[in-house]
């Protein structure tokens, strides 16, 4: 899978060199490139924003650098990958909410392009133009406000990347997780069996795999009811 991230703060993404995603990049399972939007400016000050038409607070990202960035990255999709149409994702608090299903759908794509805007936003025409190059999705992390899309894209790339076959060493660990089956994860314990007067639930020491599976499922239901009743519908 190929991932391109465009940002005015590329060093936000240095953390993607670490851990499982870092290894996946080294082995070539993930082709992840981070680009500085300013590389597609042509003025002395490498300007990426300007004042909003109609007035108002803050600045708006200019369309020209975005147009050039998307042209180049979408064209590279055309040349290389099996699917010639990239999915172009703009993180936005005004977008659809990102869920595990979103991550699963996006993990099946050949080429994702992430365009990180600042909160005041990107000139609206960029989204229209992007739709002529690929499938455009505006995606939010949830109902709160961040200063820009970078942190949201970090979260999305990690959630998507770990679903690519070979990124997570033991694929079974992907199955028994919060949200994969619509429920929260069951509690986990390790040695010692007694710690600061607290015992591990005895059933986990019983060796009865059927009983353990049943107990874990009950724990999932109980936790989901208590913490996230909205997931039970
Ligand atoms: Cl994707 N962007 C920004 N700026 N704020 C957010 C968000 C995204 N998701 C939640 N809040």
Please give a structural write-up.
The protein has 233 residues and is of the alpha/beta class. Helices cover 32% and strands 18% of the residues. The radius of gyration is 22 Å and the shape is elongated. The structure holds 6-chloroguanine. 6-chloroguanine (6GU) binds next to β5.
Q: What's the CATH topology name of the largest domain?
A: Alpha/beta knot
The distinct ligands, each listed once, are: 6-chloroguanine
CATH superfamily of the largest domain: SPOUT methyltransferase, trefoil knot domain
Number of helices: 7
Distance between the termini: 34 Å
**CATH classification class of the largest domain:** Alpha Beta
**Helix and strand run:** EHEEEHEHEHEHHEEH
Contiguous uncertain segments of 5+ residues: none
Rg value: 22 Å
What average pLDDT do the residues reach?
A: 94
Q: Helix share of residues?
A: 25-40%
Q: Into how many domains do the coordinates divide?
A: 2
Strand content: 15-25%
Quick structural overview:
The protein has two domains: 2-169, SPOUT methyltransferase, trefoil knot domain (Alpha/beta knot, 3-Layer(aba) Sandwich), CATH 3.40.1280.10; 176-231, Trp Operon Repressor, Chain A (Orthogonal Bundle).
List keywords for this structure.
alpha/beta, Alpha/beta knot, tRNA_MeTrfase_TRMD/TRM10, elongated, 18% strand, two-stranded antiparallel sheet, Trp Operon Repressor, Chain A, 32% helix, 5-stranded parallel β-sheet, S-adenosyl-L-methionine, binds 6-chloroguanine
SSE blueprint and pairings:
Blueprint: E1 2-7, H1 19-27, E2 31-36, E3 49-50, E4 60-61, H2 63-79, E5 87-97, H3 100-107, E6 111-115, H4 125-130, E7 135-140, H5 150-161, H6 172-175, E8 194-195, E9 198-199, H7 209-227
Helix pairs in contact: 3-5
Bound molecules: 6-chloroguanine.
Residues 91-93, 119, 140-142, 144-146, 148-149, 152 line the site of 6-chloroguanine.
């Amino acid at each position: 899978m190929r991932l391109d991230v465009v940002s005015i703060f590329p060093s936000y993404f240095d953390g993607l060199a670490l851990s499982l995603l870092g290894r996946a990049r080294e082995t070539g399972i993930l082709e992840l490139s981070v680009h500085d939007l300013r590389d597609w400016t042509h003025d002395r000050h490498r300007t990426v924003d300007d004042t909003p038409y109609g007035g108002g607070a803050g600045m708006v990202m200019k369309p020209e650098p975005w147009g050039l960035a998307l042209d180049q990255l979408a064209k590279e999709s055309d040349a290389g990958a099996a699917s010639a149409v990239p999915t172009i994702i703009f993180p936005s608090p005004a977008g659809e909410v990102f869920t595990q299903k979103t991550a699963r759908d996006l993990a099946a794509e050949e080429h994702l392009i992430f365009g990180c805007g600042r909160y005041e936003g990107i000139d609206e025409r960029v989204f229209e133009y992007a739709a002529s190059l690929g499938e455009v999705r505006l995606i939010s992390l949830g109902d709160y406000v961040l200063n820009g899309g970078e942190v949201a894209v970090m979260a999305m790339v990690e959630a998507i990347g770990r679903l690519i076959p070979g990124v997570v060493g033991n694929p079974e660990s992907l199955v028994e997780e919060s949200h994969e089956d619509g429920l929260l994860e069951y509690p986990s314990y390790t040695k010692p069996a007694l710690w600061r007067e607290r015992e591990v639930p005895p059933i986990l020491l019983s060796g009865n795999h059927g009983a353990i599976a049943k107990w874990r499922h009950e724990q999932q239901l109980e936790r989901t009811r208590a913490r996230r009743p909205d997931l039970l519908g």
